[in-house]
Amino acid sequence: MKSIASLKGKIHGKRVLVRVDYNVEIVNGRIVDKEKIIRTLATIKFLRSQGAVVLLMTHLGRPDGKRVKQFSTKQFISLLKKELSLLWLGDLNDKSPKVVSVLKPGQVGIFENLRFNPLEELNGSRLITQMKNVADVFVNDGFSVSHRKHASVYGIATKLPSFAGFALISELEAIAHTKRYMKCPSVAIIGGAKVSTKFKVIDSLCKRFDHVLIGGAMANTFYGALGYHMGASLVEKKFYKQSLSLLKKYAARIILPIDLVGRGEGKKWEALDIGPATQKLFTSYIAIADTLLWNGPLGKFEEKKFAKGTHVIAKALAQRSLGHAYGIVGGGETLTVVNKLKLSHSFDFVSTGGGALLEYLENPALPGLVVLR
Ligand code: ADP
Ligand code: MG
Prior knowledge:
Helices cover about 35% and strands about 15% of the residues.
């Protein structure tokens, strides 16, 4: 994999298309946590210093191939005024080369949300050609999207000279370190809402870790599979069968919550956090672990009432990681929680990747990385 450092002295006036992951939460016109964005500044500053024309592209939210105003990346121009002076490039399409041609060396532009175009997630050739026509060089600086075989991550890298950005490289180095130094007992804590991405890797986590503690909507899915009434809780029924076979195969390794808290009754009952007994149980595993991996909030922490489980576990993890254990945490929302509680310095590494991190631990051949090699 070639680092952008090797572009030194070679890209003056060249158009460099950079895939970043600026998929952040925006509440009341404010970015809740800018960490993911700040980590890409080293790459952007380097490219600017080399006189490149820097073209940023990202997705934001889940617009599912349609134009959704709330998810326009145009808002980054004012939201990131302090960090970057950004020019607006509009949609990435056939007209883009003309739009980009007015940019001067050292200037930075940003395209409209990639996921307004259904071809992005489909890795569609028309969009890939449009990307190719707008740039001379491609850079991936979004580790957290590198497990996606999308046009801006995978397709474009097969068409242009492609390089890894500084943030991507430092994530890969830190994860390689974790894999080399894993000590027993090792504990993985998996929560969050992206059940379908994470289910794929539970099997390999169970092989690698002594215990796998499960919370969030992941746990709801296991409980649904076991026949518990989950009402309106977030579950993914298509993983019921797999849940049962995992529980059978790894009976001693998978630790499910023993109490859940939520709201509503009957059909409207929603499990939204782990309860106090589970907080204690999970903490007891964490307190003796020597390797810790955490991805995914244990509950719907955005609502104060359901943030307790996530906060208690985050603090227990930070404490153990600061003490004996090697602690690595990752994921978009997980990162937000860790920063909000000011715990990021307690961990050995904080990755921007959630799904990407878990998949990478299972198999480093992520689509977006393989094409860079
Ligand atoms: P990460 O970005 O850290 O990888 P995910 O994207 O998988 O994590 O999931 C984060 C989301 O999961 C949060 O927005 C949180 O509200 C949600 N979540 C966690 N537990 C539950 C639950 N029990 N019910 C509904 N949503 C949940
Ligand atoms: Mg997320």
